[in-house]
Amino acid sequence: xxxxxxxxxxxxxxxxxxxxxxxxxxxxxxxxxxxxxxxxxxxxxxxxxxxxxxxxxxxxxxxxxxxxxxxxxxxxxxxxxxxxxxxxxxxxxxxxxxxxxxxxxxxxxxxxxxxxxxxxxxxxxxxxxxxxxxxxxxxxxxxxxxxxxxxxxxxxxxxxxxxxxxxxxxxxxxxxxxxxxxxxxxxxxxxxxxxxxxxxxxxxxxxxxxxxxxxxxxxxxxxxxxxxxxxxxxxxxxxxxxxxxxxxxxxxxxxxxxxxxxxxxxxxxxxxxxxxxxxxxxxxxxxxxxxxxxxxxxxxxxxxxxxxxxxxxxxxxxxxxxxxxxxxxxxxxxxxxxxxxxxxxxxxxxxxxxxxxxxxxxxxxxxxxxxxxxxxxxxxxxxxxxxxxxxxxxxxxxxxxxxxxxxxxxxxxxxxxxxxxxxxxxxxxxxxxxxxxxxxxxxxxxxxxxxxxxxxxxxxxxxxxxxxxxxxxxxxxxxxxxxxxxxxxxxxxxxxxxxxxxxxxxxxxxxxxxxxxxxxxxxxxxxxxxxxxxxxxxxxxxxxxxxxxxxxxxxxxxxxxxxxxxxxxxxxxxxxxxxxxxxxxxxxxxxxxxxxxxxxxxxxxxxxxxxxxxxxxxxxxxxxxxxxxxxxxxxxxxxxxxxxxxxxxxxxxxxxxxxxxxxxxxx
Length: 667
Hints:
Helices cover 31% and strands 21% of the residues. It has helices at 2-29, 66-71, 99-107, 161-169, 255-269, 297-308, 318-330, 383-393, 406-417, 532-555, 559-574, 577-580, 584-598, 603-623, 651-661, and strands at 88-90, 96-98, 123-126, 156-159, 200-205, 217-226, 240-247, 276-282, 286-294, 338-345, 372-377, 397-400, 420-431, 437-442, 448-451, 456-465, 469-478, 489-501, 508-519, 629-630. The strands form five sheets. Strands 9-8-7-10-11-12-20 form a seven-stranded mixed sheet, sandwiched between helices. The protein has a five-stranded antiparallel sheet with strand order 15-16-13-18-19, with no helix packed on it. A four-stranded antiparallel sheet has the order 5-6-17-14, covered by helices on one side. β15 (448-451) and β16 (456-465) form a beta hairpin. The protein is elongated. Mean pLDDT is 78; it is low at 24-69, 126-173, 189-194 and 632-645.
């Protein structure tokens, strides 16, 4: 009787366990309210384009509950359901992930749980798979560059502990190795096309007349450049070599990393087959995920899988990562005309700059291999470091205040880099009258020279995006005319520009500009208003000077003095003739200076966002190029950008921002 009762209890227990298992499977198969908005986008799903901040994401924190951790993959933030064709992996620490997500993460050297950071002994790893058509893999660390064959099954096996230790060290082995394994450039099969339009060079004096007897009167001349529009055939724009240096430290875990992966997916899918990309990921150390590769179909697939496999953890070694990224550009065997580094970080450098007295400029060689476009994310990044790196290399610094704006900020930057139509532009200035002299060249961040005793000058402008404009103020001493000199008009300054057109069949061009002439009456009425175009650029300079003065005061602890400097600049711009005439840029500058005052209302506010906001504004006005400042990259449905960016954003940038809003990540 006792034996029969024991068997009945065992059978009842087995039936109860079976019922609980079926119930659990059914619950997991039902979409929950916390994850229904994340399904259908695979590893790239994060925030919808309409979301503007991380508070809109309805996600539970990883590990906050058994139900949430079972239903949401902590790597891709996608829903995990049984019976939908995606295998799941349960780790030793009981956390569950998509098998493909965690296997890709392990492939790139990550051997700790992304949720609790527990070290694993048994890791998922693919068994060797013969490449199709006898093609060898690029690197043992790289995923195969070809897409998986539909319907093909891959057998995965746990990685032995000994092999695991060896793979952990391999990503850092190339720190001092040669990086000249870039993929050859694409061959152009089409003949050079004729290009519509050319670089425009114009000059406008502040006043149309200077009195005859005025002794060495100073005349301000506005020199204006405008690049030609983008060619509809895309033959005219230059191919680019880009290196993305991405922060994957522990502070990037969760939503930040998911949004970064989504943003990089957008960038990868909008690079052309002639463009090349390399990705450097860094935490406590830096590693190159793959060398410069053309973003053909196979190259894009390779890059997407490599970025998808990133996992967060460790410290923040910006110095090592930046040096590695620049070495990728320096070591190229072949070179596309355009190059640059995109650096994104949300934290302070915890390695190279930990000692007192470290100089931020030491992160870069004296001559950088390419401009570094730096992006500081959130309230904890080192804005001073990022700005210094960008300024020294000729790049821009952007402040991404909200996590949801990562993709928009990168889209705006890439929209410019992929529209370069003019390179190595250099403005040439020459005095026409034998006694005229150049006394000043105000060129912002661009290098300017005055030579031959003031008879000649030049401004090194560099690359110009399609439809991009540049404005410089040149001070010229106009000579007085004696009684015997009866000329009614004086030719003062000749302006021209040399450049190289980008794209197939590019060559050197010399663009003739204007000759500035002024009338020479006996007297000029007092109080005449100068040209609005010159006044507009004066206001831009006044605003930039106020920002620089305020920043210096704030760093010295004098916030009240910083706010006062911004107020003086705001009033000077607002009371100017250009502002009273309704100039849009002047109105935008007044609003921007007011915003900076608000962000300096307290030391805490300045540390959180004021410093980064001011530095990104200085970077924008110094280079006359759009940067992300808070939410300034937002584009409304009707295509109107935020006011402060209207005069720096190009049509290519705005177009890329629109694409970013409607971007659907790959499944």
